[in-house]
Design a protein that fits this description.
This protein is mainly beta. The chain contains four helices and 14 strands. It has a 14-stranded antiparallel β-sheet. The chain starts with a helix and ends in an 11-residue tail after the last strand.
Length: 270
């Protein structure tokens, strides 16, 4: 579940434009400030699916260092029943320009007995994406590093904002996109693989036509599926269902409600 933001959506593309900031800017047509998405989480415990808690994702318009920006936050909370097996308390935050260039990312995670903080600070200089990465370890020690890249770099929150504006037009089953994801102390090599369309019933009782995709990470030389997720096949690209393949078991997330969605949900199956 700590990858929930990545799970919710992971799509990217690289365009050859003169500056790194311009390269990482895209027109937003998928969401607006004030949108709120909520999810029910389920965990597979000894072959039984139990309600594990909830998650919410909100996006608002704000200021970042004096400039117009989006602020997005993700909160996941396990319930008391699941706390007996595994304590889950994640709070994630990011800022992006109104054209979706990443500005900042923070993740504070209490998972089991561990508590860690990851941060990524972005700047765009001389055609490069420069990032400062910070991790506060469970023992309180701090790690810092700096890197510069020619391509766009994302984190597990900012990629969600970018992903909402992708186009799957012309994609065929098996279509794969490479994804660079930064955290507090490193970069993850990841892939997104398209698996076609299907119909999914959310926890709000509504059925949606969805795009089905797999998010995979490179482990020991091979790509391993981390999440199978389903996003509404319309302009909003709202994540409807997520199947999580975790180190400590498996979990699912189903959309429970949504508010202030930008465009009509044309993916609803009547």
């Amino acid at each position: 579940m700590k990858r929930l933001a990545v799970i919710l959506s992971l799509f990217t593309a690289i365009f050859c434009l003169p500056s790194a900031k311009a390269q990482c800017e895209y027109a937003n047509t998928a969401f607006k400030g004030g949108e709120f998405l909520s999810y029910n989480l389920y965990y597979n415990w000894k072959f039984i699916w139990v309600k594990a808690g909830s998650a919410s994702f909100s996006t608002v318009t704000t200021k970042y260092k004096g400039y117009d920006a989006y602020r997005a936050s993700l909160i996941t909370r396990g319930n008391k029943k699941v706390d007996e097996m595994f304590v889950l308390r994640d709070t994630l935050l990011c800022y992006a320009t109104t054209k979706l260039a990443p500005l900042y990312f923070r993740k504070g995670a209490r998972e089991g007995k561990r508590y860690t903080v990851d941060e990524v600070f972005y700047s765009y200089v001389d055609g490069q994406t420069q990032i400062r990465q910070h991790r506060q370890r469970n023992d309180g020690q701090h790690e810092w590093r700096e890197n510069a890249y020619q391509e766009c770099v994302y984190d597990m929150m900012n990629i969600f904002l970018r992903a909402r504006n992708f186009s799957a037009k012309g994609w065929k089953k098996g279509h794969t996109i490479s994804i660079p994801i930064a955290d507090g102390n490193g970069m993850t090599t990841a892939q997104l693989r398209y698996r076609g369309t299907c119909t999914v019933k959310a926890d709000n009782g509504v059925k949606y036509r969805c795009l089905q995709l797999s998010y995979m990470e490179l482990e020991k030389g091979k790509y391993k599926e981390i999440v199978r997720f389903y996003v509404s096949d319309d302009q909003n690209h709202v994540p409807i269902r997520l199947d999580l393949f975790l180190r400590f078991g498996s979990a699912k997330a189903f959309l429970n409600s949504m508010k202030e969605v930008r465009s009509p949900m044309q993916s609803v199956v009547r």
